[in-house]
Amino acid sequence: MKEIQDYIPITKAKNNLLEIVRSIERNDQTIAITKNGVPIAVILSMEKFKGLLETLDILSDEEAMSSLRKSIQEARRGGWVSYERVFGK
């Protein structure tokens, strides 16, 4: 995920919520809301939120993570499987 693109004070966020949401949707941004200069919340698109949940799901699945680690190790050793072998073409 990209870094936070903007930090907006909570009062400004309250007064411009519709504009902020449109900007997030249009530009696929992640915006932090601040209170007294300290970030307290983040607004991000639903697409990014779903991706974040999916990533957390994968990271919390021990079997999936074990398989990913094994695949990465095999790839580093040059253990690639050809497209033809996988798809028979």
Written account of the structure:
With 89 residues, the chain is of the alpha+beta class. It folds into two domains: 6-44, YefM-like fold, CATH 3.40.1620; 48-79. Helices cover 57% and strands 19% of the residues. It is built from five helices and three strands, in the order E-H-H-E-E-H-H-H. It has helices at 10-15, 17-27, 46-59, 62-76, 83-87, and strands at 6-9, 30-35, 38-44. The model has no long low-confidence stretch (mean pLDDT 91).
- CATH class of the largest domain reads Alpha Beta
- Oligomer type: single chain
Largest sheet: 3 strands, mixed
* CATH topology (fold) name of the largest domain: YefM-like fold
How many domains? 2
Number of helices, counting only DSSP H or I runs of 4 residues or more: 5
Termini, distance in Å?
Answer: 35 Å
Q: Report the strand count.
A: 3
Q: Share of helix among residues? A: 55-70%
H/E order of the elements? EHHEEHHH
How confident overall, as mean pLDDT? 91
Q: What strand line-up does the widest sheet have?
A: 1-2-3
Shape annotation? elongated
CATH architecture of the largest domain: 3-Layer(aba) Sandwich
Broad structural category: alpha+beta
**Approximately how much beta-strand content do the residues carry?**
15-25%
